[in-house]
Amino acid sequence: MMGSKDADPSLGYLTRKDTEVKLPRPTRVKNKTPAPIQITAEQILREARERQEAEIRPPKQKITDSTELADYRLRKRKEFEDLIRRVRWNTGVWIKYAKWEESQKDFNRARSVWERALEVDYRNHTLWLKYAEVEMKNKFINHARNVWDRAVTLLPRVDQLWYKYIHMEEMLGNVAGARQIFERWMHWMPDQQGWLSYIKFELRYNEVERARQIYERFVQCHPKVSTWIKYAKFEMKMGEVDRARNVYERAVEKLADDEEAEQLFVAFAEFEERCKETERARCIYKFALDHIPKGRAEDLYRKFVAFEKQYGDREGIEDAIVGKRRFQYEDEVRKNPMNYDIWFDYIRLEESVGNKERAREVYERAIANVPPAEEKRYWQRYIYLWINYALYEELDAGDMERTRDVYQ
Amino acid sequence: MFDYFCLILLDVSILKSQLYTISEAVQASGSSGQSNTLASDVAEDLHDENPKLEAGSDSDNDKPAEEDVEGDFTKLTGRQKKLFELRLKMNEARKANQTAMVAEKKRMEPPQESRGISKQKWLEERKRKIGKLLDANGLDMTKAFMLDTQEAAEAKYKKWEKDPAPVGWDVFNQKALYDAYKKRTKNVEVDLEEYNKMKEADPEFYRDASSLQYGKSPKISEDKIDRMVKELKDREEKRNSFSRRRRFHEEKDIDSINDRNEHFNKKIERAFGKYTLEIKNNLERGTALPD
Q1: pLDDT of residue A374 exceeding 60
Q2: Distance between CA atoms of A126 and A148, rounded to whole angstroms?
Q3: Do A211 and A200 form a contact (C-beta atoms < 8 A)?
Q4: CA dist A222 to A230, A245, A267, Å?
């Protein structure tokens, strides 16, 4: 056995025993009760944070001459380039680098940094925005124009770029240029807000005729009810009542079967009301009510009833209200044909109107719903129906023939 | 606690009646010798009839005893002093009883969750409370709105009419961007004369998109450029005040070792907070609840 005290040549003057790693032997825990003074993890963390030393910052140095400045710049540039090499895809780092170069007033370098950033990710609209802003703030107008042009060509669906480009041209007073950009944008058929901003732009310079033309294109591009209504309201604001009416009529022609046609009709009718053309308004309402399936005509009905209350005579009002109730009842009887209460109410309504034909019709339909079960309850009500019918015929219609018929 | 109280009462009532009877005895007989025996008799009696005497003696003895005490405020004789001290003790006992009651009640209730109540639990609590109220009024769960006051109902209507505010990146949605642009257009100063002059000067004023005037632009005066730059600087300032600084909660637990760690924990809490709340509460308590 090798003596442990013998010098091992590879270990120098240390013996083997010394170099053996001695791990502490795991002892058995004897006392499992909780210690009298407990501490929470949170307390430990709190103490740790309190005892932390302040961050070590490099001392603030004042740069006195150009060599020092050059050194500083070199150092910073090296830092930034290292960062970029590490995290190429992090736009934030690129932007910091570019902004630092801008603060050093070295615009060529700044531009090159921006271009490199764009090379990494040209689809990032924030990069373009910040780049253009830098050019604009430092009064490099043509450079800015170039940047904007490229941005808008590469990312035509980002509205923000278009807005800001146009805003720049407008602020500089280059209205014709702004117009050209708007035209380019409209070729891409942007959404409603784009078109509306173009129209507002024209109206700012009182170019009403051009605004009108743009509206025409707008409603072609977005054939929706809301756009037509906007167009018509614009014409109203300009005071061109005939044109507005024309617009509405065209809209109705095109969009009578649209799902939002109800709004259109309501707007149209309101317009006519405002022009004090009550007859036309009534026609529109009636047309609309006929056209639109009952489910969606809720709003329309309400407006119609309100309108009639304002302008119509008593019959008109009653007609409107009755029509509405009629629809309600139709709905309900369709759902429960066995519910005789509803039938009764419906019959009473028709009687009050005094329209004999309809009353008879309803009675017939009611009677057709023979109660299913042999239960006395159902039959009772059914018989009441018959009796009512007979009475009605006798008293109101005065038609004895029919009464006899019914009694059969 | 209660035993202590009973003992005190016993003492007081004993002493009070002792006082009364003693004073009576003194008045009646005038011999101190008898009073001792009387006192001991009274003491025996009292041990049997404690509660009755309490009520009786208090109401009887309060008035004369009080007068005595108030009269000789500065020179309290031995017995009256004792009475005063006893009164003090009684008050203290009452206060101690009250606090003990409150503490017991608190112990009986389940303790407040240390990290806040999860939304689910809060909703359940609310539903239960409202259910109880509804039952008391004989209403159904579907008619819960009947419990609202008029002001509460109006506030609810107002809230329903409002659109919910956008959260997170949605703040930059299309509508918001358009509105921002619209606001900026107010900064444009429309100079119609200059506009008309330009119109005269330029034959192709109403350019088409494919016009060949594409690259050209009129000479732009310095002040316009300055105006543009100024507007940009304003925008940048406004941008700085876009997100506000949140309050620093000192009373919140620290679960980070660092500032970076704290920031990270905030982000994590935002994302996973509502799901891990139950688990965290269980850990704080030490045991999981059976629900």
Answers
A1: no
A2: 12
A3: no
A4: 12, 20, 18
Residue A9 clears pLDDT 80, i.e. is over it: no
A200 touches chain B (CB under 8 A): yes
Chain B residues near residue A173 by CB distance under 8 angstroms: 191, 194, 218, 220-221, 224
Asked if the interface predicted TM-score (ipTM) of this complex is over 0.85, the answer is no
* Residue B253 contacts A where some CB pair is shorter than 8 Å: yes
- Is A205 close to B195, i.e. CB distance below 8 A? yes
> In angstroms, what separates the C-alpha of A53 from chain B's closest C-alpha?
11
Which tops the pLDDT comparison, A101 or A323?
A101
Q: Tell me the whole-structure pTM to 2 decimals.
A: 0.68
CA distance A177 to A185: 12
Q: How far is A127 from chain B (nearest CA, A)?
A: 16
Nearest CA in chain A to B172: A160
- Which tokens sit at B63? 């008035």
Write the pLDDT tens digit of every residue in A246-272: 999 999 888 877 778 888 888 888 888
Look at residue B119 and give its three-state secondary structure.
helix
Q: Measured between alpha carbons, how far is A159 from B177 in angstroms, rounded to an integer?
A: 8
**Cα within 13 Å of Cα(B139), Cβ side:** 14
**Neighbour-count burial of B136, counting CB atoms closer than 10 A to its CB (0-12 exposed, 13-18 middle, 19+ buried):** exposed
CA A181 – CA A163 distance, rounded (Å): 10
Q: What's the rounded Cα separation, in Å, for the pair A297 and A283?
A: 16
Q: How far is CA A64 from CA A61, A69, A70, A78, A106, in A?
A: 9, 8, 11, 21, 19
pLDDT digits (tens, 9 = 90+) for A150-205: 999 999 999 999 999 999 999 998 888 999 999 999 999 999 999 999 999 999 99
Q: Is A149 on the interface with B (CB under 8 A)?
A: no
Site of tokens 């259109």? A264
When the pLDDT of each residue in chain A is averaged and rounded to a whole number, the result is 83
What's the rounded Cα separation, in Å, for the pair B131 and B144? 8
Task: List, as ranges, residues 174-203 from B with C-beta within 8 Å of A.
Answer: 174-175, 177-178, 181-182, 184-185, 187-188, 190-192, 194-195, 198, 202
Inspect the interface and report whether the beta carbons of B205 and A176 lie closer than 8 Å.
yes
Q: Which amino acid is at B133?
A: L
Instruction: Give chain B's residues under pLDDT 50.
Output: 26, 30-40, 42-46, 48-66, 68
Q: What is the dihedral of CA B183, B188, B193, B198, to 10 degrees?
A: -110
* Chain A nearest CA to B72, separation (Å): 54
> What angle do the packed helices A340-353 and A356-368 form, to 10 degrees?
170
pLDDT of residue B7: 61
Q: Do B188 and A210 touch (CB under 8 A)?
A: no
